[in-house]
């Protein structure tokens, strides 16, 4: 049964993990009756262990027997096998019968939709014994080839933990080879999210199963058909560790029946800790597979297992998604170029025009949280002004289609402060909308629409402003050049007691692990350098912030409230910045870049923040995080430091960022001299 | 004076490092008279410290003064300066006179050949004070631009150690920017090879100045115009550490007069430890620059400094180069494809033909050390045989132009053992030479030339062999497929008491740091993947073996002496191998790949080794090291481990290697399924 979420319409698929399947069709039927959607089953019978070495000799032995048995009927085959087992005394069991069932047992549609294959558990690809290892390799490739022949969705390979294995390198090599040999087949690496400490310490780096996954993923060069099939067993990791797993490409969650307990009515319910984990994982829409360590008789199924499925369906139905999450969903992990940025990257298909589209305006305007803040700031600002003869002059920079103008008019009406508004806008289409909306001046309020075709910095308003109002913050606070634009206007056109809204903007940066986003950048231009030297705007979904964000660049914007600043407004160089930021790494992970956010002080205590979890972020949807990529993943060990040096540079025509990871590894300086991405100064 | 080595003809150029140069032409003349070849001198006068900030305001102030002074003559310039210094009370010293001397003081030829520029020492690019840092940046770019204007060979930038600097990131960024801005200019980073421990611990990773160089090099993405100008001062590092410095791209060695002491005749001689260091460095042909902490009057020059130059010329003249070094010199760091390998790499210009060229044969044949060993092995082998009626049958695989055949004949004559030689050769041109040399059979000895056009494995000799003789070892021992070729012949054509020469081959691997070779691989195909997945043959010069070599693959070749082997001769898979090798890193460095060598047991106690420093390597020139590259440099911290997993894989038509670095970082598996390089099985 595919479970459908009652509100979101999302689907959940629940399967069962089986150890032996003597009669495939009956088994499939029985589990489908018990509401299971698919089976995870071994491709070969567990007892079909095979040896391949000395096949040459064995064949010779067999052909000798066969020739002596010449003229007998087909039942001589039995003798052939016996001949095989003679050599087998020295050579191990050699079989020449087919190693597994016929592909005719199910229709190809059934194989594809209802079966996930499993590689035999006896296959130890990293045995310290040459012969065992070589046999294991042959059996492995034989079974994978069978899975490919059946066009199964995936084959599950179990990560070997400890035992007589020397590590995982040969498993990694074999998985890599299988992925290359069968380009349509997915391999799902089955791995527990945590193992008992004694097992872990014996065989794993940091005692951490994630390290094993990471090693194999790296060996396979992050092959797009390699996924995790994670096992939630008795041992459960911390929430942070679970979040790290959730950011990995996983397709399947094995859920042991031991993760359940019986409620007072005798029905199975998930243990609390597993509920928490599963809620985190549901965001990524995995398949679930129930597993039970003891093989169960078919007769138990209709009674017992059905309740597990029903419980999971119920639990899934209760999972919630916030309005912001729903809004962001279609944008998840989709890289966009920052508005107004010129760049040399291959990603020309991104929304890249400095003329914002109508649709984008609509999105920006539909952010009540942002406009509530601006509205509050405007009211407080107007209320604080002395009442005089003069109208309050307000310059709106980047008026768009008038959302801020409307806010000003509303605030002016509420506070009974007459205003004269200069609505400056660069985009001609938006100017048309502004003209249309604000042609009729009233006694109280004037609205003058100004088309700044050559950019805001060239604008020379014909009145000095009491307030400069600006929402061109961009996801990184300063990346739509609010500091430059406001500086240029404020120098000559802000009254001595005038104010800027916002009055201060600070950007923030946090290290990000996201193999998904890294691969997206790689995909643009075949790993072209320019793509890694350009920031993006993206709703980060498959990714994890590895350490709390640090304050990066701070801009005190001119105005009476800010007092004397060290910035000299005449020189554009005053908006250059340099920061060296250090982050402490609490859990090992790979660094793929940095997420950028910002805080803005709009007016006195009215603030805005895009930092996740910060006050003032509830319901804010206008700004997706900024994403600053790096050219290669860097492994960060638990307890270590990550150091980023980042510059905001300017010259007469452009603003750009340069960045460099200097710890734990030295990477090359990114985007020197703005060669790959820069924001033109208009 | 350019010093010429009396034997090798190499040249040494000695210069002087100066702190102030008030009168450039006289100074140049004086030092040239004292036999110095070039000057290292500051581009600006040390007292010409400049500030650049608020230039805007300062200019305004100046233009006001200038306009008030309108009508005055050019001497008003002084007033303008005074105007500058009025603002300077708040703004620092602002000058508008030229910051340094005229480019006319020397001819452009003299600038280029006799002057290396130095950036002003007060420039602190990583000051923790924003204003100091910004000023420093402007002065830095001003001076670098002047150096580029003069077409100087290079400009020396001094690495800042400790003090009020926050690190080196901004210096790295500025150097990188300068390299990009002036594509023809070289920057030489002046850095002591070792500093006093208290200075080191305060500001350097591992207390090691090499780490600082490495950080800047990495930031600059190993820019080809960035070099080291190393300073040999009072503190000297270990020989291993010196070897590490020597493997870096360095152009200049600053040699302090404090590294000398006076001998009993009152002449300066280098301290022993510095002699050792300089001998290591001479291999790489650096320039030397003498430096003295106290500025010396010109009058001292002709007397004192001249003796230093004369001593250095004398010392240089005594430096020796071994015959093998001289032989290898033209091949140093020149990547070659292994003979007979098919590969998809872009490096098609390499010597890549399976038909070896006449020149190559000549090179191989001119290796007395190798043939002495083979000769000794043959003598011992023939002496040990029982004397009977039958001639001893010797199969020579890869007879080339007959060098081994001649050895056999000589050994047979010496031991009075009649022989019948089958000289098998794949190359038709070499066969012609063989026919020409060995047509006349004697009573004693027969030579039968066999042209194996389809490869040695297809050869079916018409007699069973007593001895199989083979020199197709390749730089990695097994990479010319001696195991496969010998197995194929020995299975049916080696007498039960027959022997193989060699009887055992073992390959060895050691981690290699060589930015030079890494860059060479990058250069082939613009960092194409296939180039990093192909081994090379190369005389490693600018490179350093970071840890002792470990045994890799071992091949016991068939024969009476080796006893029963586990290898089953029928199956080619028996020559597959897998090793996981761990190396301990005693000094931090970058891993760029692995060097490969081999040991061969020719016959009983007669062995051959290409490992540097191993017994039996003296004078051996036939085999340059094997070089197994990796796709990206990996930093290896002192005290850590480097782990390499390496496989020798075979199928019906090819043999190839796969390799993967799993520690200290996980790299992708290289050359999976032999996709980039493989050796065809003929």
TrEMBL record, chains A, B:
<comment type="similarity">
    <text>Belongs to the class I-like SAM-binding methyltransferase superfamily.</text>
</comment>
<keyword id="KW-0949">S-adenosyl-L-methionine</keyword>
<keyword id="KW-0808">Transferase</keyword>
<dbReference type="GO" id="GO:0005634">
    <property type="term" value="C:nucleus"/>
</dbReference>
<dbReference type="GO" id="GO:0016274">
    <property type="term" value="F:protein-arginine N-methyltransferase activity"/>
</dbReference>
<feature type="domain" description="PRMT5 TIM barrel">
    <location>
        <begin position="36"/>
        <end position="316"/>
    </location>
</feature>
<dbReference type="Pfam" id="PF17286">
    <property type="entry name" value="PRMT5_C"/>
</dbReference>
<dbReference type="InterPro" id="IPR035075">
    <property type="entry name" value="PRMT5"/>
</dbReference>
<dbReference type="Pfam" id="PF05185">
    <property type="entry name" value="PRMT5"/>
</dbReference>
<protein>
    <recommendedName>
        <fullName>Protein arginine N-methyltransferase</fullName>
    </recommendedName>
</protein>
<feature type="region of interest" description="Disordered">
    <location>
        <begin position="63"/>
        <end position="84"/>
    </location>
</feature>
<keyword id="KW-0489">Methyltransferase</keyword>
<feature type="active site" description="Proton donor/acceptor">
    <location>
        <position position="480"/>
    </location>
</feature>
<dbReference type="InterPro" id="IPR025799">
    <property type="entry name" value="Arg_MeTrfase"/>
</dbReference>
<feature type="domain" description="PRMT5 oligomerisation">
    <location>
        <begin position="505"/>
        <end position="678"/>
    </location>
</feature>
<feature type="binding site">
    <location>
        <begin position="370"/>
        <end position="371"/>
    </location>
    <ligand>
        <name>S-adenosyl-L-methionine</name>
    </ligand>
</feature>
<dbReference type="Pfam" id="PF17285">
    <property type="entry name" value="PRMT5_TIM"/>
</dbReference>
<feature type="site" description="Critical for specifying symmetric addition of methyl groups">
    <location>
        <position position="364"/>
    </location>
</feature>
<dbReference type="GO" id="GO:0005829">
    <property type="term" value="C:cytosol"/>
</dbReference>
<dbReference type="GO" id="GO:0032259">
    <property type="term" value="P:methylation"/>
</dbReference>
<dbReference type="InterPro" id="IPR007857">
    <property type="entry name" value="Arg_MeTrfase_PRMT5"/>
</dbReference>
<dbReference type="InterPro" id="IPR035248">
    <property type="entry name" value="PRMT5_C"/>
</dbReference>
<feature type="domain" description="PRMT5 arginine-N-methyltransferase">
    <location>
        <begin position="356"/>
        <end position="501"/>
    </location>
</feature>
<dbReference type="GO" id="GO:0006355">
    <property type="term" value="P:regulation of DNA-templated transcription"/>
</dbReference>
<feature type="active site" description="Proton donor/acceptor">
    <location>
        <position position="471"/>
    </location>
</feature>
<dbReference type="InterPro" id="IPR035247">
    <property type="entry name" value="PRMT5_TIM"/>
</dbReference>
<feature type="binding site">
    <location>
        <position position="361"/>
    </location>
    <ligand>
        <name>S-adenosyl-L-methionine</name>
    </ligand>
</feature>
<dbReference type="InterPro" id="IPR029063">
    <property type="entry name" value="SAM-dependent_MTases_sf"/>
</dbReference>
<feature type="binding site">
    <location>
        <position position="425"/>
    </location>
    <ligand>
        <name>S-adenosyl-L-methionine</name>
    </ligand>
</feature>
């Amino acid at each position: 049964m595919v479970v459908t979420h009652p509100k979101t319409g999302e689907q959940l698929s629940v399967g069962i993990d089986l150890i032996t399947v003597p009669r495939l069709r009956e088994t499939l039927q029985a589990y489908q009756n018990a509401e299971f959607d698919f089976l995870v089953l071994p491709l070969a019978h567990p007892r079909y262990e095979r040896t391949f070495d000395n096949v040459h000799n064995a064949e010779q032995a067999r052909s000798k027997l066969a020739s002596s048995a010449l003229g007998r009927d087909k039942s001589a085959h039995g003798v052939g096998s016996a001949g095989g087992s003679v050599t087998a005394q020295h050579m191990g069991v050699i079989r020449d019968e087919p190693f597994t069932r016929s592909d005719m047992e199910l229709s190809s549609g059934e194989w594809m939709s209802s079966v996930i294959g499993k590689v035999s558990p006896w296959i130890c690809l990293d045995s310290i014994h040459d012969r065992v290892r070589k046999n294991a390799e042959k059996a492995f490739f034989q079974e994978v080839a069978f899975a490919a022949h059946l066009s199964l969705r995936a084959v599950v390979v179990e990560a070997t933990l400890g035992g007589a294995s020397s590590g995982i390198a040969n498993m990694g090599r074999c998985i890599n080879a299988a992925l290359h040999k069968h380009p349509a087949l997915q391999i799902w690496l089955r791995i527990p999210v945590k193992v008992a400490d004694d097992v872990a310490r014996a065989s794993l780096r940091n005692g951490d199963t994630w390290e094993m996954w990471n090693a194999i993923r790296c060996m396979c060069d992050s092959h797009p058909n390699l996924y995790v099939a994670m096992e939630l067993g008795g041992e459960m990791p911390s929430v942070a560790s679970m979040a790290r797993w959730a950011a990995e490409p996983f397709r399947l969650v094995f859920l042991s029946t031991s993760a359940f307990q019986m409620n007072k009515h005798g029905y199975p319910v998930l243990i609390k800790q597993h509920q928490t984990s599963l809620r985190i994982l549901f965001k990524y829409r995995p398949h679930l597979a129930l597993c039970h360590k003891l093989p169960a008789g078919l007769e138990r199924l209709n009674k017992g297992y059905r309740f597990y499925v029903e419980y999971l369906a119920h639990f899934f139905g209760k999972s919630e998604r916030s309005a912001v999450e729903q809004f962001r969903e279609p944008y998840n992990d989709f890289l966009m170029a920052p508005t107004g940025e010129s760049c040399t990257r291959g990603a020309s298909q991104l929304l890249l025009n400095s003329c914002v589209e109508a649709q984008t305006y609509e999105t920006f305007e539909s952010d009540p949280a942002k406009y509530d803040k601006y509205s509050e700031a405007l009211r407080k600002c107007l209320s604080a002004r002395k009442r005089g003869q003069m109208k309050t002059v307000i310059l709106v920079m980047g008026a768009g289609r008038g959302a801020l103008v409307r806010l000003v008019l509303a605030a002016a009406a509420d506070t009974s402060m007459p205003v004269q508004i200069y609505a400056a806008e660069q985009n001609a289409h938006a100017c048309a909308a502004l003209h249309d909306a604000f042609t009729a001046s009233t006694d109280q309020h004037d609205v003058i629409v100004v088309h700044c075709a050559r950019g805001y910095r060239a604008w020379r308003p014909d009145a000095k402003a009491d307030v400069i109002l600006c929402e061109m913050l961009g996801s990184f606070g300063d990346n739509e050049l609010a500091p430059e634009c406001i500086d240029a206007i404020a120098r000559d056109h802000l009254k001595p007691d005038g104010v800027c809204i916002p009055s201060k903007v600070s950007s923030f940066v946090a290290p990000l692990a996201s193999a998904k986003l890294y691969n997206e950048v790689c995909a643009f231009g075949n790993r072209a350098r320019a793509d890694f030297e350009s920031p993006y705007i993206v709703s980060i979904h498959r990714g994890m912030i590895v350490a709390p964000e640090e304050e990066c660049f701070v801009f005190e914007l001119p105005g009476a409230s800010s007092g004397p600043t060290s910035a000299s407004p005449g020189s554009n160089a005053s908006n250059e910045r340099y920061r060296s930021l250090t982050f402490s790494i609490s859990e090992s992970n790979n660094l793929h870049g940095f997420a950028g956010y910002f805080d803005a002080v709009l007016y006195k205590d009215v603030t805005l923040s895009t930092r996740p979890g910060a006050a003032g972020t509830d319901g804010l949807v206008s700004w997706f995080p900024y994403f600053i990529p790096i050219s290669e993943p860097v492994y960060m060990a638990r307890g270590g430091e990550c150091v980023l040096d980042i510059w905001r540079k300017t010259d007469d025509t452009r603003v750009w960022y340069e960045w460099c990871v200097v710890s734990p590894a030295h990477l090359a300086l990114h985007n020197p001299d703005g060669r790959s991405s820069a924001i033109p100064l208009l």
